[in-house]
Amino acid sequence: MSFFFVFFTFFIGSFLNDIIVRGYVFGHLRDKINEKWIFLISVLLYALDDSWNEGFSLSNTLFSLVLGLSLTYAFYRTRSIWADTGIHWGLNVCYGIFNGMLGSTEGGIFITADNPNPPPFIELISYILPLLMFLFLYSFRKNLIINHTYHQNIKQKTLNTNGVKGFES
């Protein structure tokens, strides 16, 4: 398995997942329900999709919920699919380097020893890392915001050119 293959295929998977789970959900529900509910729906859809992909377990579901929280938060704050796709893609590439492609028994680029009884802290790492990622994103939230005024101006210009009351030239 080549690094390019991991790099390319995980980009496609991350991008498509992000378009559906965050882009489509936020795009179509934005004017219908409160954004907090949209945020929650997006996180839950991500966790369900990841469970379907990796197999359902309490451990994987908890991991997916925390990771979904981080990815959705990145999208929510930037209003850009590229922020969460970049994070998602990077994490998937790291996964692929160590574990190989999903559904493959070949393993990753790096060979690791399998321990049937890993220490408990190893399991905790899979929960702590996505949580730390969320806390990192949250701590830099002011830097993640794309110029809100710019987006409001674009939206207003679109409304004005469609003959909506309040047109100003």
Automatic annotation (TrEMBL):
Domain CAAX prenyl protease 2/Lysostaphin resistance protein A-like, first and last residues per copy: 3-93
Protein origin, superkingdom: Bacteria
GO MF, one annotated term: metallopeptidase activity
InterPro entries named among the record's database cross-references: Rce1/LyrA-like_dom
Keywords per UniProt: Hydrolase, Membrane, Metalloprotease, Protease, Transmembrane, Transmembrane helix
Transmembrane parts of this sequence: 6-25, 37-52, 58-76, 88-112, 124-140
Name the UniProt record assigns to this protein: CPBP family intramembrane metalloprotease
BP-aspect Gene Ontology terms: CAAX-box protein maturation
